[in-house]
Amino acid sequence: MKLFKLNFSNTIRTGILTMIAILSSNISFSQDFGADVVSSYVWRGTQFGSGAHVQPYMELGSGNLTGGVWGSFPTTAQGGGEELDLWVSYDFGPLALTVTNYTFPGGDGEKVIGMGTYLPSEGLFDGAYTEVSASTSLGGIDFLAGYFTELESLYLEASFAAGPVGVAIGYADDQGDSWYAGGGSGIVNMSFSGSKDIQITDDYSLPVFGSFIYNPDAETAFLVFGISF
């Protein structure tokens, strides 16, 4: 198991180095960075930590190959839910494949993650969680399938627009450890989202968004507000 985890970490390292090499030899590239501030961090129907979180990101891409880093950090010392993820994605046209390495850094002991799961503090690339995911669109519906290799946990999601409201429904199957559905399977995420721009000046508007999220399996609900920069 340890060797398996290290192999996936090396895969992500190799993917990032390959992407950097491509970018250095090709003047056609894209970059993006920014951050969201959310009232609480809820992902796939589960809350991570407590309180408001700042979630910065950076991306680099060339052609169909893109990679980046994404993080989530509480605004208070006791918030918990620290996360730092590295990912590499390739868009084949009808299907995009992504490999993500999830790490949960911190120096103050164990962190609560997922459905009551505890994970000791970790360093970059030392995370025990690697997800291989695929996404595509068909008939106005976006589909996502993600599989955590070490946990043997599967997540399936369909999302679509119902007028101004974005709707997502996620189903999970915990084949190994308790992750999404407490060791079982079921619908773990039903979210209803909206967004708008608040005009600040003639030249600048502030994007804001909100989501109502219900987890039928855990019988929990969340209302999240966010700002994008």
Keywords for this entry:
229 residues; mainly beta; 10% helix; disordered N terminus
Secondary structure layout:
Layout: H1 2-25, E1 30-38, E2 41-43, E3 46-48, E4 53-62, E5 65-74, E6 83-91, E7 96-103, E8 111-113, E9 117-119, E10 129-138, E11 141-148, E12 153-162, E13 165-174, E14 185-199, E15 205-215, E16 220-228
Antiparallel strand pairs: 1-4, 1-16, 2-3, 4-5, 5-6, 6-7, 7-10, 8-9, 10-11, 11-12, 12-13, 13-14, 14-15, 15-16
Q: Tell me the fraction of residues in β-strands, as a range.
A: over 45%
| Total beta strand runs | 16
Main beta-sheet annotation: 12 strands, antiparallel, barrel
Shape: globular
Instruction: State mean pLDDT (0 to 100 scale).
Output: 83
Q: What ranges have pLDDT less than 50 throughout 5 or more consecutive residues? A: 1-7, 107-118
Can I get a quick summary?
The protein has a single domain, classed as Porin.
Characterise this structure.
The radius of gyration is 18 Å and the shape is globular. It is mainly beta and 229 residues long. 10% of the residues lie in helices and 57% in strands. The chain has one domain: Porin. It is built from one helix and 16 strands.
